[in-house]
Amino acid sequence: MAVLVIADVCGQSAQGYDGMLAVLEPLLEQAPGFIAHGAGPVGSGWWKTIELWESQAEATAFFAKHIHPNLPPGVSPKRSMIELHALVLGPMVDLLRGREVETYIPGFSRMVSGR
Hints:
- This protein starts with a strand and ends with a helix.
- Helix content is about 35%, strand content about 30%.
- A hairpin with a 2-residue loop joins β2 (about 35-45) and β3.
- The chain is α+β, with helices and mostly antiparallel strands.
- The chain has a four-stranded antiparallel β-sheet.
- The protein is globular.
- The protein folds into two domains: about 5-85, Alpha-Beta Plaits (2-Layer Sandwich), CATH 3.30.70; about 85-115, no CATH class.
């Protein structure tokens, strides 16, 4: 089942985030189970990231292998996961329709509501 991972990060900066993303983006793009990532500042010294993964196990494995060991000193994300009941996609869904997306997003046809 797909999961939404939310991380609240105290002590992160745009410069620190951009540095990590430069290293992690290619790894994310190739990671088994990865669907999407987004992040932004939410207050003085706080940063929030969100990710969509095919499973909690894949999200946890990626964090343990690639993110946790590379966190700057003093940066400790507070992570939470929500198992998704549904996932509604915007216009991107039309680009994926009719393709073999199940190989990329197992259960994709069940996650897209109203189509």
